[in-house]
């Protein structure tokens, strides 16, 4: 796992003034990656790094030839339209580029004049998917979510016997993953009402979001060659925010015996910025589970994982209804949670995913599963917050919700903060539900 | 759906003599596509079309400039290392190239001299995946398989209530799909013995194959825009053979509530040749279900689908153990079945997959699910043939099997034949189980 170095020093400031504001998501200690271009332009997308309210255009920086050695090689790869090749280079290359960028963007840097010309305001940018996502796997790592949802789908058997032994996961759809700003029509599908003899067809009536983080694979592994838990994070590039939209009524009717399908694959939305594992190093913490729970099997267990497998990424989910948007009202918060509540670590997910020889590839995405906390109000989905649609929630403008309505925009944000370290943020992911096409 | 035309004429012969033998998989009425190069060479892979025991090298044919118009455009795309761009061009382009190839390879063709120099013997070739598979979905379309497997996993509840309403499907892993010849170590994983309190870890003890066909998407659809059942086959390029290897003991412990994961994603193997939907046109048949079964909802139903949705692809599965291979003994047949037993058609799978707005992309793969027939001996998996491992099968050389052993090679073949039409075949898909890496 990444160790602390000069790039994490909380005293560092940047010559980009907005990076020093204290409440920015993107101080010089963060340096996340995205693929961007000027909004409404026909420019080629290319890699960028967020600094304050600006983006350092990596294609422009690459053309300036300021860096040497491994950092220059890494910069060349990161300047491409999608980050897959950069991701494939591995931690040494990522780290070399991070160090070079940190030094170049630092207050007093001799490279300020050259790099200044490579900045583009985030306000003027639009984003693409940061990489081609070959395969997307969704895990189910919040025991609080699993228990609460399980109690709704299977009242007599909420948490299945395998849950505390296996990081439960399943394959999702890569083609329908979009970047923040994604809009999609309410899905149509088959559902069966609890009291109906036969299913019916129509627009989803129980449309929901899921508050997740997305984990991007960097260097891959060959088919047939498992990744051990202590080298698992060598294969992880970074983390984004992830909204795994879900059609609960379609899910309930379709999901047995082979799992969710059309209830999930109509859209999934990620934030544009990937925060690297190295940037997250200050926020590692011990990881353990209740003493009465089974301890993980050896392939899912290591001293390092216990010591620093935890990752406190604070998450929040907000809703802006169409009425709120029309009236110029800001999104209202629905819940807060944290990835520290995850029952399984990133390293455990990677080790489990590959233990049978399954190959991961650069740019593959692992969803964490809905990150609900232990308290009801920390739930990461409406299904939980409204107790299966039975307890509507009230919004400040007088509207209520059980599930999402047409025009609703869901906003997710995340950040890490603790005494002695710079607060770093993930930006946000926004997605909007359009009216069904009927 | 494709209509019959001069390319299907059973009286056609080719100037490639081996294409006229009567028992070849690849007469001039077939013309399937693959990506190939000379074996053990460092040549670039490129598209090829099978004719008898030869391959027409489409890159070489493209260089010869023999075709005009749409056929020439299609040939240029099909000559690329992977077929995705060709697949994206749609049925008119595929059909134009098929007609040009049929005329060029026909006995007496004026193009014989030019095309003769573009032939490479299949015996001298090796294959790559025919296309980049962005997403892979596995369906579950044999009601006979679903019922028999269901009775093993859920004796009290073999066929779930949704089965006859929904073409059940789930997302699989694209990265671990390999082409015929794939070898993989026996997967490791968690399993729990029926009488055990806790799971244990080790090599899979119930390794199985699944006899499927794979359906390749041609032209895609945009996110949010469903494909109606009567235009569904406009989006289908063709069909291959598909072995969806399965670790039954891992599956039993992991699959609830989100479906199979590590029990499936360690390897899946396809045949190199894709037989186009146009080549399959003579083998269409009426499609219906028992009168006592529910009739499909309107979005899964059409007059055309009822009239010609059926597709009689005869399938067989063979086993060659290591001992048989050492002694030079041919593979022995385990079972025969047909895709005509499918409870859902190709068009229904595509219409269902996209009805929620999910986007399909050129090169995406849909597995049919195990194609077991109604009789016990028509089962497409060892799980069924050995009744969950309780009734070992005897092989001609005296060996027995409940599940696959190390060194076992599984061979699948398929063909279509009926009076008045040329027999066309799929070639074969072979995969071999290696010893677990422990």
UniProtKB/TrEMBL annotation, chains A, B:
Residues 137-433 form the Fumarylacetoacetase-like C-terminal domain. Keywords: Calcium, Hydrolase, Magnesium, Metal-binding, Phenylalanine catabolism, Tyrosine catabolism. Pathway: Amino-acid degradation; L-phenylalanine degradation; acetoacetate and fumarate from L-phenylalanine: step 6/6. It holds the Pfam family FAA_hydrolase_N. Its EC number is 3.7.1.2. GO terms for molecular function: fumarylacetoacetase activity. Residues 29-130 form the Fumarylacetoacetase N-terminal domain. InterPro entries: Fumarylacetoacetase, Fumarylacetoacetase-like_C, Fumarylacetoacetase_C_sf, Fumarylacetoacetase_N, Fumarylacetoacetase_N_sf. It comes from the Bacteria. Its cofactor is Mg(2+); Ca(2+). This is fumarylacetoacetase. It comes from Marinobacterium aestuariivivens. The lineage of its organism: Bacteria, Pseudomonadati, Pseudomonadota, Gammaproteobacteria, Oceanospirillales.
């Amino acid at each position: 796992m990444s160790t602390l170095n000069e790039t994490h020093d909380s005293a560092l400031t940047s010559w980009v003034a907005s990076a020093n504001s204290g409440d920015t998501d993107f101080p010089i200690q963060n340096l996340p990656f995205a693929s961007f271009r000027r909004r409404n332009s026909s420019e080629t997308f290319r890699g960028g790094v967020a600094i304050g309210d600006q983006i350092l255009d990596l294609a422009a920086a690459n053309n300036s030839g300021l860096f040497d050695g491994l950092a220059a090689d890494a910069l060349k790869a990161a300047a491409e339209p999608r980050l897959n090749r950069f991701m494939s280079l591995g931690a040494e290359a990522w780290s070399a580029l991070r160090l070079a960028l940190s030094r170049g963007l630092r207050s007093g840097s001799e490279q300020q004049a050259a790099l200044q010309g490579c900045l583009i305001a985030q306000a003027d940018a639009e984003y693409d998917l940061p990489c081609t996502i070959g395969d997307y796997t969704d895990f189910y790592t919040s025991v609080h979510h699993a228990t609460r949802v399980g109690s709704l789908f299977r009242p007599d058997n909420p948490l299945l016997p395998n849950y505390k032994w296996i990081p439960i996961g399943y394959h999702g759809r890569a083609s329908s993953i979009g970047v923040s700003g994604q809009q999609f029509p309410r899905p149509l599908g088959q559902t069966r009402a609890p009291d109906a003899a036969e299913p019916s067809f129509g627009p989803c009536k129980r449309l929901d979001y899921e508050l997740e983080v997305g984990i991007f694979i960097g260097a891959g592994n060959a088919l047939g060659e498992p990744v051990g838990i202590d080298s698992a994070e060598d294969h992880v590039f970074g983390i984004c925010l992830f909204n795994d939209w879900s059609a609960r009524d379609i899910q309930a009717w379709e999901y047995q015996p082979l799992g969710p399908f059309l209830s999930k694959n109509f859209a999934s939305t990620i934030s544009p910025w990937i925060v690297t594992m190295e940037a997250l190093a200050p926020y590692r913490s011990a990881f353990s589970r209740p003493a009465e729970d089974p301890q993980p099997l050896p392939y899912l267990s290591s001293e390092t994982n216990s010591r620093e497998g935890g990752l406190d990424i604070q998450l929040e989910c907000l809703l802006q209804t169409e009425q709120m948007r029309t009236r110029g009202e800001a999104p209202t918060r629905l819940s807060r949670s944290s990835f520290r509540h995850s029952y399984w670590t990133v390293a455990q997910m990677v080790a489990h995913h590959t233990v049978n020889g399954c190959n991961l590839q650069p740019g593959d995405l692992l969803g964490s599963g809905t990150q609900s906390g232990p308290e009801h109000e920390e739930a990461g989905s409406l299904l939980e917050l409204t107790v299966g649609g039975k307890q509507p929630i009230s919004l400040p403008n007088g509207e209520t919700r059980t599930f999402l309505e047409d025009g609703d925009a869901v906003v997710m944000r995340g950040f890490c903060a603790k005494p002695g370290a710079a607060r770093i943020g993930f930006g946000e992911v926004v997605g909007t539900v359009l009216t069904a096409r009927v």
